[in-house]
Amino acid sequence: KTLHPKVHGGLLFIRGNMDHEAAVKKHGIKPIDLVVVNLYPFERTVSQPDVTLHDAIENIDIGGPSMLRSAAKNHESVTVVIDPTDYAEVAEQIKAKGNTTLGLRRKLAARVFARTSAYDAMIAAHLIKTFGSQPAPMAAPQPSLPLVEVKGELPNTLALTAPKAQALRYGENPHQRAALYGRFKDYFLQLHGKELSYNNILDLTAAANMIGEFSGSEPALAILKHTNPCGVGQGRNLREAWERAFATDSQAPFGGIIAVNQPLDLDCAKAIAEIFSEVIVAPDFQPEALELLQKKKNLRLIKILKDPAQAGGWDIRSVGAESFLAQERDLKTIQASDLKIVTKRKPTAAELEAMIFGWRVVKHVKSNAIVYASAQQTLGIGAGQMSRVDSSRIAVWKAGEARLSLKGSVVCSDAFFPFADGLIAAAQAGATAAIQPGGSMRDPEVIAAADAHGLAMAFTQVRHFRH
C-alpha cells in the first residue's frame, strides 16, 4: 500500500505545476500535505543477542523510507515528520496557521534524509557483518556529515557517509588495520615522499590546524610531534621563525612534522633539511626549495589546498561501545581587546603580544597544557600531565634544557589555575605575566598571588581543553 503510485503521486505532486495538475486530475490522485512515519525498529531488533536473519530482514522498512523521501523531496508543499519530538511544534503551527512554515518544513526534510541515510547505513553494516561482504567502491569519494540542527541543538541522528579514500599500511600500531576516509585529498596534496601513514595524517592535520592560527600574519613555523607542538616561532622570514621554533626543543623535532604559514623558501628549506623530518606542510613550496627537499626520498611534502578550518564545525570521535561523541570544533580565537586584565599591574605591549602568541599555541597542546612564551617564540612547553603544576614544571625544565631564559616571559594555561601554586612557580621561574581562562572558585587567591609577585594577568574567559 505504501508503495502505491497514487500515494507517491500525492506526495510528489508539485502544486501549481500545470503538467502535475493535469496528471493528478487524470489519475484521480489526491494531494498529501502531511506525512508522519515511524520506521520499523531495525536497530533495536538487531541489537538483540538472539536475533535471527529472518527477524532482521523482516524489520527492514521499505514503504516508510520511500514515503519519507518522497515527502521530503517535495517539502515546498509537504510536511514530513519522522521524530516524535517534532509533533508538538508541527501541531502548534497547523493549529495556529492551518499549515507549517516553509522554514520548519525544510528543517524537517533535512532531518528525514539524515535519518533515512543512517537507517540504510545500519542495515548495510549489519548485512556486511552477517554475510562478510564489502560494499562496492563509489566512483569518487563524496562524504557528508548531515548534522541537522534544529533550534541550535545537535541532531537526533548522526549520519556519516565517507567512502574510502586511501588504504593505509596499518593504524596507530602495526597490529591495527586502518584506512583513510573522506575528502582529505581535497584539502591536502602530497607532492613527494613515502605514502602517508595513519600517524602522519593525524600529525599533519594537527600541524595544519596549529599553523592556521597564524594565517595572514608574519612568517610563522611550527614543529609538532605526536600532534603536540614542541616549538613555534615567528620572525621576519621563515628561516628566523624556524630558528626560534627549533630553539625551543632541539631533540623532539627529530622525526617530527613541520608546518609553515607561507610558501616554503630555499633558505628555510636548507635549515630544515639538516635534520630528519617525517612531513613538511606548507601552503606552497618555492621551486628551489622543492627541488632541494625532493632529494630526500622518504620526506613527505604536503601542500595545503584549503584551510581545514573551512571544513565545518564538527569533531566526531568514536568512544567504543558502538557510540560516538560529536561537538563543535574549537575554532575560537581571541584578540587583545577580548582580554580581561584582573591584576593591579597591566601588561606591557610586549607582554600583551606574547600573551596572544602563547594563547594561539597552548590551544593546540594536550591538556593539561602550559606554554611559556615571548612575543615570537615558545620558550617551554608542558603537555598532557595529570596536574597543571607538573605541566608547568616540565615546561620550565624544557626551557632550562634549551638554555632559554624565562625572565620576562608569559605563562599560558589552557584552563584555569586551580591553586595559586602554579602561578607562583611560574613567577619564580621568571614569568612576568600570565594568561588563562579564569573561572576557578579560587580566582581571588590566584589574582592575589599574581599581585604579590608583580605579575600582570589576563583572563580569556575561554577554555581550551584538548584530550
Features:
467 residues; 16 helices; 6-stranded mixed sheet; Rossmann fold; Cytidine Deaminase, domain 2; alpha/beta; 37% helix
Tell me about this structure.
The chain is an alpha/beta fold. It has three domains: 5-131, 3-Layer(aba) Sandwich (Rossmann fold), CATH 3.40.50.1380; 183-309, 3-Layer(aba) Sandwich (Cytidine Deaminase, domain 2), CATH 3.40.140; 336-459, AICAR transformylase, duplication domain (Cytidine Deaminase, domain 2). The protein is built from 16 helices and 18 strands. The protein has helices spanning 5-12, 18-27, 42-46, 53-58, 63-73, 87-97, 102-131, 184-187, 198-212, 238-248, 266-272, 287-293, 349-362, 388-401, 420-429, 443-452, and strands spanning 34-36, 79-81, 164-167, 179-181, 188-192, 220-225, 228-234, 256-260, 277-282, 300-304, 314-318, 324-328, 340-341, 370-373, 378-382, 410-413, 433-436, 456-459. A six-stranded mixed beta sheet has the order 5-10-9-8-6-7. Helix 16 (443-452) links the parallel strand 17 and strand 18. Helix 5 runs antiparallel to helix 7 (102-131).
